[in-house]
Amino acid sequence: MSKIRLGIIFGGRSKEHEISIMSAASVLSVIDQKKYEAIPFAIDKKGVWHIPEADLCGISELSDPLISGLFTEAAKVSLTDFDEMTDFALPLLHGPFGEDGTIQGMFEMMDKPYAGCGVASSSVSMDKIFTKDIWRNSGLPVSDYTYITRDRCADGFAAEADRIEKALSYPLFVKPANMGSSVGVSKAENRADLEQAIAAAMEYDRRIIVEEAINGRELEIGVIGNETPAVSVVGEILPENEYYDFHSKYKAGGTRLIIPADIPENVRESIYGLAISAYKAIDGEGFARTDLFYDEKQGKIYLNEINTIPGMTKYSMFPSLWQAKGVGFEELIERIIGFGYERYNASHHRQPASRA
Questions:
Q1: Among 15-29, 57-71, 204-218, 326-340, which is the least confidently predicted range?
Q2: How many helices (H) and strands (E) does the chain have?
Q3: Ramachandran angles phi, psi of 147, nearest 5°
Q4: What is the per-residue pLDDT across 311-350, written as a single tens digit (0 to 9) for each?
Q5: pTM over 0.70
Q6: Rounded to a whole number, what is the distance in angstroms from the first to the last CA of the chain?
Q7: What tens digit of pLDDT does each residue of 214-255 get?
Q8: Using one digit for the tens of pLDDT, what is the confidence trace for 65-77?
Q9: Which uninterrupted H or E stretch holds 209?
């Protein structure tokens, strides 16, 4: 059987551009070369596609000088090139224009099998407001929250800040609705903090979610699968800073990942069930990572976010959680690709053998 031509797509127009490149470098280093012809497609910050000549496998830091050499004029390609050169798409684009249903819609238009969640589930999961609304309406536990839009703040933040203070109690977290890797996230302890945090978040999005802070442990769990998803072990984050911000996630330092998390068995089992319920509520497919809080004093668990294209870097929790479950990085990627083909074949009423 001939090799499957695997298009690995990374970079992109979001603020998580460099993180995506690091994820691609990690995945490229473990692809089964006997089974796949891995073709890297790098999207620059203007949305132009390239097939870089440089070897990505050595990239391991956000500031790596190799990154700037990926996007040369000679390396430019078209979407037609991508379509003709690939059998299957593995998007590793984090944030807007990659994790939000946009590129998934392009794959659907091309009739291209691809890994991960579909158009609708990617879109709603990227938007923290939509996600919380769906989970709350599904009876799943989330912290109290509200949201604001840029147009409501045309005359300043005072009126919206008044409304937020009546609805929620400090401390609060303020986040862009459509952004990942903790970009634009701030914690507000008082009115001055709140207005400053709103202004900061609006640099990245016109819709802002404001949530009551949960005084709890930060836990994460991986989910893979389509109709019958499976879960990884539960991991815990002990951030270097007060909370798990961008610096803590992607800079070497004091942040610790505890895998598996030291939590009671009944809590662990509850998290397994919640993760699967959260995944099914957004119609998840392929793979995702769910983030939760565990309030030990109250004995309560709260869903926080779901990431439909979680990081695959050397700092990332998702592959580490599956490694602890006994699923190595190479096997994890193989399963994710398999789930993409499974969905494609099912939607086209094909038998799995058609993959060849």
A1: 57-71
A2: 11, 14
A3: -145, 160
A4: 998 779 999 999 999 999 999 999 999 999 999 999 876 6
A5: yes
A6: 7
A7: 999 999 999 999 999 999 999 999 987 665 455 545 455 557
A8: 777 778 888 899 9
A9: strand 207-212
pLDDT, tens only, 266-284 = 999 999 999 999 999 999 9
Rounded distance, CA 304 to CA 130, Å?
12
Burial of 253 (0-12, 13-18, 19+ CB in 10 A): exposed
Predicted confidence (pLDDT) at residue 353 exceeds the cutoff of 50: no
Look up residue 161 and give its two tokens. 């800040």
Instruction: Yes or no: say if 122 and 95 are a contact pair by the CB < 8 Å rule.
Output: no
Return the structure tokens found at 292.
């939760």
* Separation of alpha carbons 333 and 21, rounded Å: 16
On whether the CB atoms of residues 116 and 27 are closer than 8 A, the answer is no
Give all domains of the chain, ordered by start, each with its CATH number.
4-114 (3.40.50.20), 144-212 (3.30.1490.20), 215-345 (3.30.470.20)
Cα–Cα distance between 90 and 78 in angstroms, integer? 17
Amino acid type, 304: N
Q: How far apart are CA 259 and CA 168, in angstroms?
A: 33
* Cα distance between residue 196 and residue 203, in whole Å: 11
Q: Is the dihedral of CA 302, 305, 308, 309 positive or negative?
A: negative
Q: How far is CA 13 from CA 36, 88, 314, in A?
A: 27, 22, 22
Q: Quote the tokens at residue 267.
A: 């809590």
Convert the pLDDT of each residue in 37-50 to its tens digit. 999 999 999 999 99
Return d(Cα 152, Cα 155) in angstroms, integer. 8
Rounded to an integer, what distance in angstroms lies between the CA atom of residue 90 and that of residue 124? 20
Q: Is 226 exposed, middle or buried (0-12, 13-18, 19+ CB in 10 A)?
A: middle
Distance of CA 241 to the CA centre of its chain: 21
SS3 318: helix
Distance CA 82, CA 41 (A): 8
